[in-house]
Write a structure and sequence with these properties.
292 residues; Rossmann fold; five-stranded parallel β-sheet
């Protein structure tokens, strides 16, 4: 079991305090630096491991950066703090992005990132709550994360502790029927403390989502299921911050975060083959140059 890195927790607290107190320009610069550092580390991890889901890791990075550095009410020094906000990465195959984000907040030492996908490493290909502090539930089989998030949001309502619950699904994952059952349940119970985020990069393994099983009009479907809808640029920090604000209608919130798969690395962006392709040494160098 990994343990807290207290020194890194203090650095994370300094960053979140700076973000909270900055004007929009300074805030965006701080978050941009953090996101670029995350993307560089993802490239390094996947390069060393020789496996991973690089496209989706890069598309979800800005969402994670905003949540963990400007939104979530958490304390990495006390991962199981009662009444904490909770985050679930339902698209668990993009674990590398989550691991880097958790390490940067001090949930565990950043040195552990070099063990990604190693035999017996806590940082395997899908998040495991029994091994990694900050992981709220095991994910990987698609369509499981949102139902768990609904249960956690309902539990928070019953406890009256004010906790909010956020879950990120891949857009291809929204083809799973369990998600729509969860959406119906969330609306039925009026879970205005739940925010369901769709990483809408429009690509899944092997093809575009609309060519595989069309989701559009996704916005109208989410509205019909009883959600307060927010559709934003998933790489714009100001828009993401607005999207992650508490519900204004008493309904659960659905965020369609329009993203670019492989965001930040030009030759990976919006390319279906990079769902889980591993970059060559030359491509790693090019990616690092772009993310400098």
């Amino acid at each position: 079991m990994l343990t807290t890195d207290t020194r890194q927790v203090e650095q994370w607290r300094e960053l979140t305090s700076a973000v909270a107190g900055a004007d929009a320009v300074e805030r965006d610069a701080l978050l941009t630096d953090r996101a670029k550092a995350t993307r560089r580390e993802i490239i390094k991890m996947i390069d060393k491991a020789g496996q991973g889901h690089i496209g989706g890791d890069l598309s979800v990075t800005d969402i994670l950066t905003v949540l963990y550095n400007a939104v979530l009410r958490i304390d990495p020094a006390t991962p199981d703090l009662e009444g904490r906000d909770r985050f679930i990465l339902s698209k668990g195959h993009c674990a590398a992005a989550l691991y880097v984000t958790l390490a940067s907040a001090g949930y565990f030492p950043a040195s552990a990132l070099s063990t990604f996908m190693d035999a017996d490493s806590a940082l395997n290909g899908h998040p495991n709550r029994n091994k990694v502090p900050g992981v709220e539930t095991n994910t990987g089989p698609l369509g499981h994360g949102l139902p768990v998030a609904v249960g956690q949001a309902l539990a928070a309502k019953l406890a009256g502790n004010g906790a909010r619950v956020f879950a990120v699904m891949g857009d291809g994952e929204m083809q799973e029927g369990s998600n729509w059952e969860a959406l119906m349940t969330a609306a039925h119970y009026g879970l205005d403390n739940l925010t369901a985020i769709v990483d809408r990069n429009r690509l899944q393994q092997g093809a575009r989502t609309e060519d595989t099983s069309s989701l559009d009009p996704l916005d109208e479907k989410l509205l019909a299921f009883g959600f307060e809808l927010r559709s934003v640029d998933g790489h714009d920090y100001d828009q993401l911050l607005g999207a992650f604000a508490p519900s204004s209608t008493g309904k659960p919130v659905a965020v369609i975060a329009n993203t670019i798969k492989g965001k930040g690395v030009s030759f990976i962006e919006d390319r279906v083959e990079w769902h889980h392709k591993v970059p060559s040494a030359e491509q790693v160098a090019l990616a690092m140059e772009e993310l400098a």
